[in-house]
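For reproducibility, we list the full input for the zinc ion complex.
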Amino acid sequence: MSCLMVERCGTISLDSPDQNALCVRMQGDERVRGQAGLLSERRGSYPFIDFRLLNTTAPSGEIGTKKKVKRLLSFQRYFHASRLLRGIVPQASLHLLDEDYLGQARHMLSKVGTWNFDIFLFDRLTNGNSLVTLLCHLFNLHGLIHHFQLDMVKLHRFLVMIQEDYHSQNPYHNAVHAADVTQAMHCYLKEPKLAHYLTPLDIMLGLMAAAAHDVDHPGVNQPFLIKTKHHLASLYQNVSVLENHHWRSTIGMLRESGLLAHLPVEMIQDVEQQLGSLILATDINRQNEFLTRMKAHSDNRDLSLEDANHRHFILQIALKCADICNPCRVWEMSKQWSEKVCEEFYRQGDLEHRLHLEISPLCNQQKDSIPSIQIGFMSFIVEPLFVEWSRFTENTPLTITMMNNLRKNKGTWRGLLLKQHSNSEDNAAQTNEDKIRTSLEVDHS
Ligand SMILES: [Zn+2]
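The corresponding predicted structure, in tokenized form, follows.
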């Protein structure tokens, strides 16, 4: 059965009332303690729900049953559940998709390893199912289903859970970003320096971590969660709050899906731990820690990819690169990502304004322009990491393409920033002229 067919059948069955996955997920806040003793998490992060609770909690501290339910579910799950309870059966829109679209999506998948892969187009062609479709295909392509004897239905169920727990209303941190990071990860896993040494377990971990690394992202950053006393901030004691949540939620879904239940316990524990280590590495606050170690390895030429620990470290670096590779894409795609991430920042700024909080850096639409945010991000975060990645891969065609795109895109943003400045100077001059003219007119009237 082709991946697209599997994906299609699964989506239809999810919409039927007897589908287990939906029922299991609606149970919400179940904390499942696995044999490893790790706590998994299936609790929602949507900030508005918590604000409503904070503002409407009765003096006794009692919260109404309806609100309790909301608190237990992420916004996505609450939305699906409430529609279902009101008897609204979701449209199985894939039924209506023209076979041409699936044909085009299938054609795109034949070029999934190319750097100019258009994930936005792919998402449209798969009717918003880019993450599930891409992952099914990549698991097949890398022989993971056969190697780990995975059950396709369970795999599909797990991927649908992951995809649906991304917030589609986030301009940036949504399932399309996850699909984009996974596609980039696939490209990096194919780099000759790395591909030669990777085991099927490394590949599965790399792809899973990429797909789930931002799951249930609330669209606001860690400082926002800390200053609003969000339950996740206290749960993780203000350390890698979002990343810990992404990891624990992933474990929750992995266990619910039963995808790996047939594997030895020690292996499941190892997968859960490594997924955590990979996802936690995407915390941008830990950038220097990883850069310093990567530089030291390159300077000392002591990376040995036969060593599982070294391979894991390179997977962490690869995931970090995949997560912030937007500026290394072709301009047309890179620009779209830049606009989306800035829109998410500005939304946080608006929310902070409404809540009478100090507006976070980069979140003030009046002061922080897209070009200035992007130039700073490229110079201080993206370039240093990709310079080290280039040293590691030894300038492969992909690395050269990415570095060229990065240089060109930065130049384009610089040009736009200059234009913006000259426009605002023109505007300022114009305003001054207007003021002078008005005052002269008043004087002469
Ligand atoms: Zn991300």
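Residues 177, 181, 213-214, 323 surround zinc ion (CB under 6 Å). Residues 101-421 form a domain with the Catalytic domain of cyclic nucleotide phosphodiesterase 4b2b fold (CATH 1.10.1300.10). Both points were considered when choosing residues for closer inspection.
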